[in-house]
Amino acid sequence: MLNRLRFLSTIIFVGVFGILGFSIGFASDPPPADEVGTSVSVRMYQVEGALPVDDPNAAQWETIPGSEFNLAPQVHWPERIQEVTVKSVKVKGLHNGQDLAILLEYADPTEDPKDAAAVEFMVGDKKAHFAHGQEMLQVEGGPVNIWFWKKEHDKTLDMSAKGFKTLTTQEKQDVKATGAWANGSWKVVFTRALKTEDEQDVQIEPGEWRSVAFAFWDGAVVDGLVKEKGSQKAVSSWWSIRAEPSADNSIFGWVILGLALAAGFEFVVIRKLRKGQSA
Amino acid sequence: MRGPIANGAILLAGMFVFLKFILPLLTAPLPASLIYLYLALTLSGIMIFGTMSASSLENLMGPIFRFLSGKGQSGIGQMARLAVLVLFPLLVGWQTYTRLAPSDLPPSENRTIHPAPPGEFVGLANPYQNNEANINMGKGLYAAYCSPCHGANYDGKGTAAPGFNPPPANFSDPGTIAQLQESYLFWRIKKGGVGLPVEGMPWKSAMPRWEVELPDEFIWKIIMGEYDGAHQSPRTWEEEE
Fold it and tell me: Structure pTM?
């Protein structure tokens, strides 16, 4: 009798305190502050039907929130640059289960033919250095996939790199991009199928995180020279990007299971208690 | 007279107030998971104390058992019991939902800021004399090569700093170079971000691999200039003993 009571009291306390602890304790820690005061990820919202891939000014882009990332002058390897035009970029994403579209919006006071933008992804399971997947000394790195756009002729390239001086244009071009400049600001839309047959490409699986980075060149001509070109550009660090997964209704099944288990637990405990009291 | 339940509740509440509000006055705030752990230990103590004998068990658990079994209850007691029995499954359901609901946050990454250096860099001594000429040369090199990220004031706030994640180290913070030996800095400058082991996440670091561009002499002198400019001293073995 005594042992059963002990057991029951322990069960009740452990159960209740466990649940309360998770609710009150773990929920109350605020998320860690961002290290550089910007977003940490891009969410590609899932929509039905065609994506606004040809029109960076399409109204659909206004319906979703974006992320913002700071940019730095490329000082990691020569030729360096100390001061760049593009200081930050606002990024929005959409997908429809087949294709994706990424909108980059950034301030650049002048529209120049050599203005350019790029999006970089890690490809495969191995980590790749954000500077063109350059060699790391203690870690075996992987390749990167770079989507490049230049204002001149809306030139778009689907490229690969694994280390400096290995940047090559892929045989199979899967990316399209177009840009529109107005009032000191570029809007550039990149689009591609979520998945391709090309193993050099990043494959976007809805619900899975990928690493992404950005780069921009101000093609303004100053004293007869293009201001930013080649390695002289504005760059971002690696951030995360994810195509929103389809709504998962199985979660409600688990919630109902949780409710049922808790109610069953109550039922058993109370029945035992009543038996004990009448005994 | 208070029963053991009231005493236990007061003890738990007091413990919570102490851990959450009073302790942070003396040290850093505790994470919620740690507070929870301490409260669980306190509760275990209360339970052990309360279940030592049959009579203490009855004092502690009797009212709770009678409340839950609902025998002979009426009015407020009955309502309260019903509320508890309904709320508990709802709480479990809500917990299940919040744990499984898709999050917009990418998985967190725990980057080690100062991982262990490779063996060949342990215990190297700066071969250059710590004199004014060398320090000044180091400071000049620092201004040219390091300050765009690490800042002219050695505070990690260079013009390029806001774009980088992880951010450039702040040398004036006593938690950075003051905790390290000169040989450690020699490794980090010479091999750069790409020289880090996996726990340092080399793929994210923008720190250049300076051995490609600068001779060792420059690196040793930059280290001298860095410590002097940031008003810090390298960690030495003598101080540890």
Answer: 0.78
